Amino acid sequence: MPISLPLSFRSLALPLAVGVVAAVLAGCVGGPSGGGGLAPGLTQAINTPGAQMDRSAALAIINQYRAVRGVSALGADAALDAQAQTLASQYASTGRPPSLPSGLVAMRLSAGYENFAETFSGWRNSPADADVLASGQARRAGFAVVYNPNSAYGTHWVMVLAQ
Predict the structure, then answer these.
(1) Cα dist. 3→9, 16, 67, 69, 130 in Å?
(2) Assuming Cys at both sites, which of 15, 93, 119, 160 could form a disulfide with 113, CB separation 3.0 to 4.6 Å?
(3) pLDDT tens digit sequence for 4-34
């Protein structure tokens, strides 16, 4: 049987839960060697040619955020990773944000952030991006990053979401 909380408690629940995720992202619970904090794959700098992101760590932090927002977890999808990689390469080479390909629920782009933790924080702190991260229509995700030292922003991130 669901418990109905007074409005004052309900209005605090989401900010409190989002604050917990934010505290983890800020490293408030200790560094990677301290047992708490972020997975090294989330803080790894992607500012050299050929650097790879930790897609499973990225999916894990997105799914933690989705859980806080009361939305089911996303599944990894290698085909979506490949599509995101193509889009990120296009983004990094042209400097222009790519259009949302047909068949996808949503796409999030970012440029200039050195690691995925920073990228996620940027998305999480933008109300429009945060709502996309928590889209109930999405069931699968793909991630990619491309570093282009000749571009204005260097690092270009893409996350694609599909049903």
Answers:
(1) 12, 18, 19, 18, 27
(2) 119
(3) 333 333 333 344 344 434 444 443 333 333 3
* Cα–Cα distance for residue pair 62/140, rounded to 1 Å: 11
Q: What is the C-alpha separation between 77 and 9, in angstroms, rounded?
A: 37
Say if residues 119 and 65 touch (Cβ distance below 8 Å). Answer: no
Q: What is the number of H-type helices and E-type strands within the chain?
A: 6, 4
Q: Which residues have a Cβ under 8 Å from the Cβ of 138 and sit 6 or more positions away?
A: 74, 105, 106, 161, 162, 163
Residues 98-117 have a mean pLDDT of 96
Cα–Cα dist 18/65, whole Å: 7
According to DSSP, the β-strands at 155-162 and 140-147 are: antiparallel
Please report which helix (H) or strand (E) contains residue 26, including its range. Answer: helix 7-26
pLDDT band of residue 1 (cuts 50, 70, 90) is very low
Rounded Cα distance, 118 and 151, in Å: 19
Encoded tokens for 160:
């694609």
